[in-house]
Amino acid sequence: MTEKPKVGVYICHCGINISSTVDVDAVAEFAKKLPNVEVARTYSYMCSDPGQVLIKKDIEEQGLNRIVVASCSPRMHEPTFRKAISEAGVNPYFLEMANIREQCSWVHEEMEEGTAKAEKLVGASVAKVRLLEALETKEVDAEPAALVIGAGIAGIQSALDIADAGFKVYLVEKTPSVGGRMAQLDKTFPTLDCSACILTPKMVDVASHPNIELLSYSEVEEVNGFVGNFDVKVRKKARYVDFNKCTGCGDCAKECRVKDRFPNEFDQGLGKRSAIYLPFPQAVPAKYTIDAENCLYLSKGKCGKNPKCQEVCGAEAIDFEQKDEFVEFKVGAIIVATGFDPFDASRKPEYGYDDYSNVITGMEMERLVSASGPTEGKIKIFNGEEEIEPKEVALIKCVGSRDESVGNEYCSRVCCMYVAKQAHLIRDKLPDANIRIYYMDVRAFGKGFEEFYDRVRRENVRYIRGNPSEIFKRGNKLVVKVEDTLNSRALEDEVDLVVLGVGLEPRADMRGVMDLLRLSQSPDRFFLEAHPKLRPVDTATDGVFLAGCAQGPKDIPDTVAQAKGAAASAMIPLARGKVTINAQVAVVNEATCRGCGFCVNICPYTAIELVTVNRFGNEVEVARVNEALCKGCGSCSAACLSDSIQPKSFRDSQILPQIAALGVLK
Amino acid sequence: MSANFEPNIVAFLCNWCSYAGADLAGTSRVNYPSNIQIIRVMCSGRVNPLYVMNALQQGADGVLVSGCHPGDCHYMEGNYYARRRLGMLKDLMEFVGVDPKRFHMSWVSASEGHKWKEVVEKTVEDAKEAGPFEGFRRRKIEW
C-alpha cells in the first residue's frame, strides 16, 4: 500500500433511531482518537443527499481515502455509500459500515451500553477499513433471455411482458397446461368477471408468442451460473403423446379402457377423467397427456389386446416409447412464479371435512358453481348418498389463516372477498337459501372491495362474528357450533352445506425450487423477498425475482402488478446486455501456494483449478481462481494450510484486526 | 468470578442468513444483551477456526459462529465445512483446557430474529458461567 490511510468516520443519528440509544457525539469523539482517523462527524441522516455531500466534501478537502459509515445495516445502504465515495474519486471498496442501528440501537435500551457497543463497532470498522484494498468491478455480457418458472397468471403475465419487449422467454410449467389456479376459478371478485374469459386469451398468447418457448409438463432440473449467465436444464416429462401429431380431438379419452375413473385434479377431484386426458377443455397446449401411474398399458404392461387410445388415434400420436427429454439453455434472469397450495382442510378435523360430504372447500365451490365445471354450474351437494338442495348454507372464513394452531399466523388476503363472492353466487343459484358467513374480521381493503361487501350484505347474506369451534352431525343436518361474539350468544346453527373458506399456503413442493435457486423463506414460509418494502420482487440471489403467491398470498390484481414488476426488474440486465460481476473474489498468492488442491476440492463453484507456473525456475502447481465463477464465499481460505488463498475484502489480514479491535476495546 | 461479570463476545455471522436474522431482530426491536459484537463474513465457511482462538487470545471471553441452516447455505455447502471444522475445534478446545462453553455454533436464518435473541442469550449466559478468560491471552496487542 503506497498511500497512508486517511480515514473519515461518519456517524448517523438516523433521526432518533440511533441517537436515542447511542450518544453519537461521544462516539465521534472516540473515533477521532483512533489511529489514522482524520475526521469524525455526525449527521441526522447520512444517507440523505446532504449527508452524502458532507462525506464527498471531506474527501475532496481533506484528502480522505478510507470511509467508515456508522449507521444502518450494510445490507441496506452499502451500495448508496459505495456510489457516493466513488463519485468523490475514492475506490468504492474503501468503505466499511458499522451497523449501529439494526445490531445496536434497536436491540439495546440503555444509552450507556448502546454507546459503548457503538464505539467498539466503529473501532472494529476503522481497524478493517485501513487495510482494505481497491477493487475493480468487471462486467460480463448478459444473455438476453429469461426463464419463468410457473405458468399461472403471474408467470403468464411476466412472460408476456418480457417477450413483448423483445426478449426470449422460456416458460416452464409443471402440469400439462398453463393457467394455474386462476383457471380453476369461476368469477373473480369484486367485478365478477369470468375468470376463464379474462385468462384464456393470455394463455393462448403465451403459447403462440414468437418469443416464448412454452415448456409445459416440464420441470427445472438444474440451474448453474449467476445473474446474466444462468445455465438451465429442464426435464420435459414424457406425455406418451407425440406433441406435434396430437390434434386434441379427444377420441382417445373417450375410448380409454379406464375411462372417467380417476379424480380430475383440475376439478378438485369432483369430476373424473381417463388415464389419457386434457386437464380442462380450454387447456393450453391442447395436447393430451397419459398419466403413467394409472394407464393400464404403462403401469401393468397390458391393455386388452391393444391399447384403445392407440387404435382410435387417427393422428397416430400415441407413443408409449416416449422418454423424458432434457433441454438446456442460457438465460440472464429468472422469475419464480410457482404459486400456492390451498390450505388442506383435513388439518382442521373439527370442521369434519373428511367426515361429511356436504362440508366442502372454497376451491371445490369454485368448480361447482363454474359453468364449465363437473356439474355445469349446478350446486350439486350430497348428504351422504342422497343428493340435496341446500336450504341452509354456512360459509366459514379464516380456515387455515390467522390460526397459530396450524402454523399460519398470516392473513391469506383473498378469503374475505372470495367467500363474499361465493355467497353472492350461491344467492344467484339458490334464491331462497339462508346464507350465513361466520367471520373473525372482514377485510375489504382493495379497490371496489368494500362496495362489493356492502352489496353482498344487501343480498340477504347474514354475517355472524364468530369462529366456529366445531361442526358435527345431528340427524340429517350439520351443526355449526359457534359463539356469536357481537351478541355473546352460543349458537348451534343447523345447516345443509358448509363451505370452508380455506386460505393460501406455501406450495408443499417449494423446496425443489428453493434449493435450485438458493432462495430463503420468510417466517410465513413463503419465499423471502430482498426487502419487504423497497425490493419486493427481488431475492437475495441476484437475477432471481419473485412474482405472485410464491412470495405471499395475493389476489389477482396484486399478482398481475407484481408479475409486471418482476418482469420489469428481470429486464434490467437483459436490456443493458451486461452485468457487473462480484469484485470480492478470492485471489491466490502464487508465491506461497503449495499446490495441494484442498481449495480446488472445496470450492462449490469449481472456480479454482491447479495450473503449472514457473516459480524461481521450477515448474510448480498452484491454484488459480476463475473470477467469473467465484462468488467470494471464502470457504477455500479457511481450508488453506498456508493462508495463500484469500477472499478480497475478507482477507485474514482484514478480519484479524477487527477481532483485535473488539478485544482491546473491552 | 464476580457475579456481575459481563463477558466480551465476538460473533462471526454469515451475510445471507444469520447477519440478516440479526438485522431482523433489530427491525423487530427484539432486545438482547449488548455483550455481543458482530463481525460480518460472507459465509460461515469463511470462518477459519483460528479466528475463534484468535478472538479468545485477543480479549474475548466467548465466541459465536452462526450460519445458514444446514442445507440452506447461500453458497451451497459452506456451512457444512464450518460445521465440520468448528466441531473439531470444539473438541480441541476442551483438550487444551478451554471451557467449550465459550464457543457456540448456531444456525439462524434470515427470518429468525427471535431465535437470534435466544442464541445470544444462551451464548452470553454460558460465557458468564465460564467466567473471564485468562487462558493464553496475548500480552501486547497491536492493531
Question: What is the secondary structure topology, with strand pairs?
Answer:
The complex is a heterodimer of chains A (666) and B (143).
Chain A: E1 7-12, H1 24-32, E2 37-43, H2 49-62, E3 66-71, H3 74-87, E4 95-99, H4 101-105, H5 111-129, E5 138-141, E6 145-149, H6 153-164, E7 168-172, E8 187-188, E9 193-194, H7 195-208, E10 212-215, E11 218-226, E12 229-236, H8 251-255, E13 262-263, E14 272-273, E15 276-277, E16 289-290, H9 296-300, H10 308-312, E17 325-331, E18 333-336, E19 340-342, E20 359-361, H11 362-369, E21 381-383, E22 386-388, E23 392-399, H12 415-429, E24 434-439, H13 449-458, E25 461-465, E26 470-474, E27 477-484, E28 489-495, E29 497-502, E30 504-506, H14 510-517, E31 544-546, H15 556-576, E32 578-581, E33 586-588, H16 598-602, E34 608-615, E35 618-625, H17 635-639, E36 645-647, H18 652-664
Parallel strand pairs in A: 1-2, 1-3, 3-4, 6-7, 6-18, 7-10, 18-31, 20-29, 23-24, 23-29, 24-25
Antiparallel strand pairs in A: 5-32, 8-9, 11-12, 12-17, 13-14, 15-16, 19-30, 21-22, 26-27, 27-28, 33-36, 34-35
Chain B: E1 9-14, H1 18-27, E2 36-41, H2 49-57, E3 62-67, H3 78-95, E4 103-107, H4 113-130
Parallel strand pairs in B: 1-2, 1-3, 3-4
Helix pairs in contact in B: 1-4
Folded structure, characterized:
The complex is a heterodimer of chains A (about 675) and B (about 140). By secondary structure, chain A is of the alpha/beta class. Chain A has 5 domains: about 5-135, Rossmann fold (3-Layer(aba) Sandwich), CATH 3.40.50; about 145-235 and about 325-340 and about 510-575, FAD/NAD(P)-binding domain; about 250-310, no CATH class; about 340-505, FAD/NAD(P)-binding domain; about 585-645, 2-Layer Sandwich (Alpha-Beta Plaits). Chain A has 18 helices and 36 strands. In chain A, helix 5 packs antiparallel against helix 18 (about 650-665). The longest helix of chain A has 21 residues, at about 555-575. The two termini of chain A are about 30 Å apart. The mean pLDDT of chain A is about 95. Chain B is α/β, with parallel strands linked by helices and about 140 residues long. Chain B has a single domain (about 10-130), classed as Rossmann fold. Chain B has helices at about 20-25, 50-55, 80-95, 115-130, and strands at about 10-15, 35-40, 60-65, 105. In chain B, strand 1, helix 1 and strand 2 form a beta-alpha-beta unit. In chain B, helix 1 (about 20-25) crosses helix 4 (about 115-130). Chain B is globular. The model of chain B has no long low-confidence stretch (mean pLDDT about 90). Classes of the chains: A alpha/beta (about 675), B alpha/beta (about 140). At the A-B interface, helix 4, helix 5, helix 17 and helix 18 of A face helix 1, strand 2, helix 2 and helix 3 of B.
